[in-house]
Amino acid sequence: MILAQTTSALPDNTGYVAAAYLVFFALVLIYVVIMASKLARFERELTELNDVADERFGPSAPAARPAPEEAARR
Q1: What is the pTM of this model?
Q2: Could you tell me if residue 27 is inside a domain?
Q3: Is 5 inside any structural domain?
Q4: CA 34, CA 51: separation in Å to the nearest integer?
Q5: Is residue 7 helix, strand or coil?
Q6: Spatial separation of the C-alpha atoms in residues 49 and 57, rounded to whole Å
Q7: Which residues of 36-46 are buried (b: 16+ CB within 10 A; e: fewer)?
Q8: Model pLDDT for residues 43-56, shown as the tens digit of each residue
Q9: Confidence band (pLDDT; 50, 70, 90) for 14?
Q10: pLDDT value for 71
C-alpha cells in the first residue's frame, strides 16, 4: 500500500523553502521601511509648505485665491 510507505520525515528541500520565506519577508520589511520613511519625509515637507503659506498669506487666508491677473482686473 502507498500510504504505508510514507514517513513523517521532512523533505530535503525544507531549508530552501524556509530560506525563500525569510528572503521574501526581509524584502517586504525593507519595502515597508522605505515607504514609511518616504511618508515621513512627505509629511515633513507638507508641514513646511503649510508654514510658508501661513507666513505669506496668514493663517486665516482662504484656501482658493484668484490669480494675480484676475485680482488686478477687479
Answers
A1: 0.58
A2: yes
A3: no
A4: 26
A5: coil
A6: 12
A7: eeeeeeeeeee
A8: 999 999 999 999 88
A9: confident
A10: 59
Query: Residue ranges of the alpha helices (H) in the chain?
Result: 2-5, 14-57, 68-73
In whole angstroms, how far apart are CA 60 and each of 44, 48, 64? 21, 17, 12
State the cell numbers at 34.
Answer: 522605505
Three cell numbers written together for 49: 509648505
Cell triple for residue 71? 485680482
Element (H, E) at 60: none
Position 34, amino acid: I
**What gap in Å lies between CA 8 and CA 10, rounded to an integer?**
7
Is residue 23 domain-resident? yes
* In a domain? residue 36: yes
Look up residue 55 and give its amino acid: E
